[in-house]
Amino acid sequence: MGELSPIDKFREFLQTKGERLTRERSIIIEEVFAEHEHFDADTLVSRVSSNKSGRRVSRATVYRALKLLEEAGLLRKVARPNGSEVYEHDYGYPQHDHLICSKCGDLIEFTNEVISAIVEKICAENSFIKSGHRLEVYGVCAKCNAPPQRRHRKLDLV
Amino acid sequence: MGELSPIDKFREFLQTKGERLTRERSIIIEEVFAEHEHFDADTLVSRVSSNKSGRRVSRATVYRALKLLEEAGLLRKVARPNGSEVYEHDYGYPQHDHLICSKCGDLIEFTNEVISAIVEKICAENSFIKSGHRLEVYGVCAKCNAPPQRRHRKLDLV
DNA sequence: GTTATTGCAAACCATTTGCAAGTGT
DNA sequence: ACACTTGCAAATGGTTTGCAATAAC
């Protein structure tokens, strides 16, 4: 069985709900899956506004589509580095968690099977039916934590 | 060295910032530490409004105080079961994480040292200076997942 | 043709903020 | 006295929604 492409998965999802794959939704999903990186609603709104097709998609429609994409299992919210939620692909990508830099806002992904296993065990012990988890580690990334770098380092050589 | 009470810890914190322990802040911290349970800003607002002393504390002041209590290390945000953030005591309580029931909104605490250890290791590997973490497990708790209980079970015995 | 979807602008909701009056040290 | 804090009401900012026009099936 070949894996469905995101858009086909979405089409399938919409069909089971009696909803429609509109031009706007196609544009949105195309932008969302153009690259595998984290994004927030606002960023997506500007990306679909400057869309090559010249067609604009309203903010409201983007928000409505994001909700559907989450429901469909194509996206998931993973963090809120600066207040607003950040999404990432949740279709065809392995489970992972994030280190969140409080200075630059960067998300660093990591995977760890042991954590997942422990979470499973804890759920079992509590008769808790897990649907997912989110592990966010806060702190400062290596880059931001580097010693105050000499500015204009090249000048030292002059 | 005896542990400071929350209010003493707060007083100390305020002093180092050149800020004051006002009546309003005292009322708030008393309410916050009256019992060890999760709460959100809105709940706290109503609790300090129906305060026994008859004195009201405004919503703005509660929000300002919550921010200070977090800064002081007395409170931490732990989850957002229904959108709004939930606080809990973070002074004198051991590190733990939560199972979050999507039906009843309950938070079930659990502790696991292995998870903390793994998180430490991952941070080290990434030269990430950790300040804290938050592990939220989503799903349905045992209570909500129970088979639709016969209503009025006692009637069976009649 | 019927029903879902869009864009707009207004509504929402939690949280934050400016400011004048009040309070802690 | 002085600087910090309060309450109020208005502002904010991200997200949602009612509705008439429009598009998918």
Order of helices and strands of chain A: HHHHEEEEHEH
Number of helical segments of chain A? Answer: 6
Q: What structural category do the secondary elements of chain A indicate?
A: alpha+beta
Strand content of chain A: 15-25%
Give the helix proportion of chain A (percent range): 25-40%
Q: Can you count the beta strands of chain A? A: 5
CATH superfamily annotation of the largest domain in chain A: Winged helix-like DNA-binding domain superfamily/Winged helix DNA-binding domain
Reported for the largest beta sheet of chain A, the result is: 3 strands, mixed
The neighbouring-strand order within the major sheet of chain A is 4-3-5
CATH class of the largest domain in chain A: Mainly Alpha
> Low-confidence segments of chain A, ≥5 residues, pLDDT <50?
none
CATH architecture of the largest domain in chain A: Orthogonal Bundle
The number of domains of chain A: 2
Highlighted features:
homodimer, 158 residues, alpha+beta, Arc Repressor Mutant, subunit A, Dna Ligase, domain 1, 2 domains, three-stranded mixed β-sheet, two-stranded antiparallel ribbon, 6 helices, 5 strands, 39% helix, flat, DNA-binding
What does this structure look like?
- Two copies of one chain form a homodimer.
- Chain A is flat.
- Helices cover 39% and strands 19% of the residues of chain A.
- The relative contact order of chain A is 0.12.
- The mean pLDDT of chain A is 89.
- In chain A, a hairpin with a 5-residue loop joins strand 3 (97-101) and strand 4.
- In chain A, the strands form two sheets. The first copy, chain A, has a three-stranded mixed sheet with strand order 4-3-5. A two-stranded antiparallel sheet of chain A has the order 1-2.
- The first copy, chain A, has helices at residues 6-17, 23-32, 41-49, 59-71, 113-125, 142-145; strands at 75-79, 86-89, 97-101, 107-110, 129-140.
- Chain A is built from six helices and five strands, in the order H-H-H-H-E-E-E-E-H-E-H.
- Chain A folds into two domains: 1-91, Arc Repressor Mutant, subunit A, CATH 1.10.10.10; 94-145, Dna Ligase, domain 1.
- By secondary structure, chain A is an alpha+beta fold.
- Chain A binds chain B through residues 99, 101-102, 108, 110, 112, 114-115, 118-119, 122-123, 126-142, 145, and chain B through 99, 101-102, 108, 110, 112, 114-115, 118-119, 122-123, 126-142, 145.
- The first copy, chain A, binds a DNA duplex (25 and 25 nucleotides) through helix 2 and helix 4.
